[in-house]
Design goal:
Elements: E1 2-4, H1 10-18, E2 25-27, H2 28-34, E3 38-39, E4 47-52, H3 60-68, E5 70-71, E6 78-84, H4 91-100, E7 108-113, H5 127-149, H6 165-170, E8 177-179, H7 188-192, E9 198-201, E10 204-207, H8 217-221, E11 227-229
Parallel strand pairs: 1-2, 1-4, 3-5, 4-6, 6-7
Antiparallel strand pairs: 8-11, 9-10
Helix pairs in contact: 2-3
This protein binds flavin mononucleotide (FMN) and iron/sulfur cluster (SF4) (2 copies).
Residues 6-11, 52-56, 83-87, 114, 116-118, 120, 214-216, 241 line the site of flavin mononucleotide.
C-alpha cells in the first residue's frame, strides 16, 4: 500500500510510478479529512510514504496521518520517497523516527528532485527546466522501483528535522492570500485544498483558517491565475505537474 500526499502532482506522479500491480494508493489528505486511519495489510504487504518536503521537514498532512495511522500487522517492508525542489535535509529521518514509535522500521528512504512549487518564495523556472527535471525524475523512479522490488536497504540521511516544524508553522499563515478580479468562481481551489482552509463565499474563495498546510495547490492550480500571496507572487509563474493538468484531484 502506498500512502501519498500531493499539492501540485509531483508526489502523485512518483507514487503512481512506484505502484505495483494491484497495490492500493491512498491519499493521506483525503484520509485525514475523513478520519480514515485504520488500514488492513495482507500478509507480506509493503507500505510506502510519498510526499513533498516543506521547509526541510514534514508538513501537517503526513505528520497527522502517520501519527494516527493504525495497521493490523507490521508491513513486510517500509519505504519513503520525499519529493523536493532542492533538498530534504532530515525529513526522511523524521519520518523514520515517527514510524519507530509505532514499532515500524523504515528500510528505504530517498529524496526525489522535481520541479519546485514554492511560488510563495521563488519564481518558477522555465518549461525546459521543468521538463528536464521530470525526465530525470522518471529515470530515477525506475531505479527506485528496482531497489524496492529487491527490498534494498537505504538509511534516511541526517538527523530528524522535526525540530524545524515550528519554523514551518510560522510560514503557514493564510493572511497573505487574496483573490483578484480574474476569479471565475469555479471553486477548484476550495475543492483541491487538502486542509479545508478555503470556502466559497458568494462565488469567491475565502480563507477560513488562520493557518494552512501551505502546500501551494490553490495558488498554483487556479486555472486563471487569480490567487496571489502578498506582493511577491504577482510577477511569478505557477507550477503544476502534467499528471494533474490543472484540474480536480483524481
Ligand atoms: C511551503 C513550501 C516549502 C517547501 N520547502 C522545500 C524545501 O525545504 N526543500 C525543497 O527541496 N523543496 C521545498 N519545496 C518544494 C516542494 O517540496 C516540491 O516542489 C515538491 O515536489 C512538490 O510536491 P507536490 O507537487 O507533490 O505537491 C517547498 C514547497 C512549498 C510549497
Ligand atoms: S480556482 Fe481560481 S478561478 Fe476558481 S474559484 Fe478559485 S480563485 Fe476563482
Ligand atoms: S489554502 Fe492553499 S496553500 Fe493552504 S492548504 Fe489550502 S490549497 Fe494549500
Amino acid at each position: 500500500m502506498i500512502f501519498y500526499f500531493t499539492a501540485t502532482g509531483n508526489s502523485l506522479m512518483a507514487a503512481k510510478a512506484l505502484l505495483e500491480e494491484g497495490e492500493r494508493l491512498v491519499d493521506m489528505a483525503a484520509a485525514r479529512k475523513a478520519g480514515a486511519y485504520n488500514y488492513d495489510l495482507a500478509e507480506g504487504e509493503r507500505v510506502g510514504f510519498v510526499f513533498p518536503v516543506y521547509c526541510y521537514t514534514m508538513g501537517d498532512v503526513p505528520v497527522d496521518f502517520v501519527r494516527n495511522l493504525t495497521l493490523n500487522r507490521h508491513p513486510s517492508y517500509t519505504f519513503t520517497v520525499v519529493t523536493c525542489g532542492g533538498g530534504i535535509g532530515g525529513t526522511a529521518a523524521f519520518l523514520g523516527k515517527e514510524l519507530r514509535k509505532k514499532g515500524i522500521t523504515l528500510s528505504y528512504a530517498t529524496d526525489l528532485l522535481m520541479p519546485d512549487n514554492a511560488v510563495f518564495y521563488y519564481d518558477t523556472k522555465s518549461d525546459a527546466h521543468h521538463a528536464d527535471r521530470l525526465g530525470k525524475a522518471t529515470v530515477r523512479l525506475e531505479e527506485i522501483k528496482s531497489d524496492l522490488s529487491e527490498h534494498k536497504e537505504k538509511r534516511a540521511k541526517g538527523l530528524s528535522s522535526g525540530w524545524l516544524r515550528p519554523f514551518y508553522h510560522a510560514l503557514c499563515g493564510t493572511k497573505p492570500f487574496y483573490v483578484t478580479d480574474k476569479c471565475v468562481g469555479c471553486g477548484l481551489c476550495a475543492r483541491n485544498c487538502p486542509d479545508g482552509a478555503i470556502e466559497m463565499n458568494e462565488g469567491k474563495p475565502r480563507w477560513i483558517k488562520k493557518r494552512c498546510e501551505k502546500c501551494g495547490a490553490c495558488i498554483n492550480r487556479c486555472p486563471v491565475r487569480a490567487i496571489e500571496h502578498g506582493k511577491g507572487t504577482v510577477k511569478r509563474g505557477r507550477y503544476v505537474n502534467p499528471i494533474l493538468k490543472g484540474g480536480d484531484n483524481e
